[in-house]
Amino acid sequence: MDLANGSFSQDFILLGFSDQPWLELPLFVVFLVFYILTILGNVTIILLCRLDPRLHTPMYIFLTNLSLLDLCYTTTTVPQMLVNLRSTRRTISYGGCVAQLFIFLALGSTECILLMAMSFDRFVAICRPLHYSTIMHHRLCFQLVAISWFSGVSTSVLQSTWTLKMPRCGRRRVNHFFCEVPALLKLSCVNTVANEAELFFISILFLLIPMTLILISYCFIVRSVLRIPLVKGRRRAFETCGSHLLVVLLFYGTAIYVYLKPPSPISMEHGKMVSLFYGIITPMLNPIIYTLRNKDVHRAFLGLVSKVPSLMGSLLGKV
Q: Is residue 152 a contact partner of residue 108, using CB atoms and an 8 Å limit?
């Protein structure tokens, strides 16, 4: 029962691209390919980081959690999106919408804090290499991960509750691909200024401040990289830092556009498109960006692949 409306809850209708039906088939193919790549990439990273003892370091503990977040993050929204793109009945149950809203908010908020922790880890590794093992010990690493998850889940509980308590007066047509706070607030039939102010404040805490601290840390990282005497070493460090920073800016920048931009009909339409970046594209790019030039991951992957024939042989022998 929807307590805010005092009546039994109805399914929500996710409009998505219903106003542009010619886009639905190509988008279905693109999103499906992106989703498959996201699953393969993030599952591979999780397996490698868990199975290879050489990857049991703070950097890869953070990376494992990031991959888990991205894996769950996309699974929360993309399957429903794919179904709706190939169906004339674009509905999601009230319970499904509540679950989607809560999980998406929790994982997204957690990733905001985790990316900040990862940039701190890189700052210590590059700017304080002699003290890295002393500063980034496993206890601190797990504490940062725990803080990220706790803050994300706590914020999601509050934000989801405040959003779902708003009376909708029977409105159920969500102008989005999934149940997200700005889109659901548009359904309310009462003044939402207080909710928008609260959303703005939380967005500053979880988006603007972490991105600012990450940019500051990368300024120190660049300054340290410039001191590297070898041109080849400098170029490699810049390529790695540049790719990491690109993903960070893509994730935070698009989320800031959606959550901190003043609400308007035009911004709502643009926000629907922009949310595809932090909802689908960055989770797919993260495994590529963080492992493309990583020799440790390459060695772990080749080691795992070399063990596959022997594992298959032992399994067949038992059968």
A: yes
Tokens read off for 301: 């992957």
Report the distance separating Cα 160 and Cα 2, nearest Å: 14
Chain Cα centroid distance, residue 257: 15
- Contact status, residue 131 vs residue 124, Cβ threshold 8 Å: yes
* pLDDT computed for residue 316 by the predictor: 54
Residue type, 43: V
Give, to the nearest 10 degrees, the angle between helix 282-291 and helix 24-51: 40
Task: Decide if pLDDT at 102 tops 90.
Answer: yes
Any alpha helices (H) in 128-227, and if so which ranges?
132-135, 138-164, 181-185, 193-203, 209-225
In this structure, what DSSP letter does residue 113 have?
H
Contact between 2 and 98 (Cβ < 8 Å): no
Note if the pTM is more than 0.85. yes
Q: How confident is the model at residue 151 (pLDDT cuts 50, 70, 90)?
A: very high
More confident residue, 270 or 224: 224
The rounded distance, in Å, linking the Cα atoms of 243 and 75 is 25
Let me know: does 122 contact 217? Beta carbons within 8 Å: yes
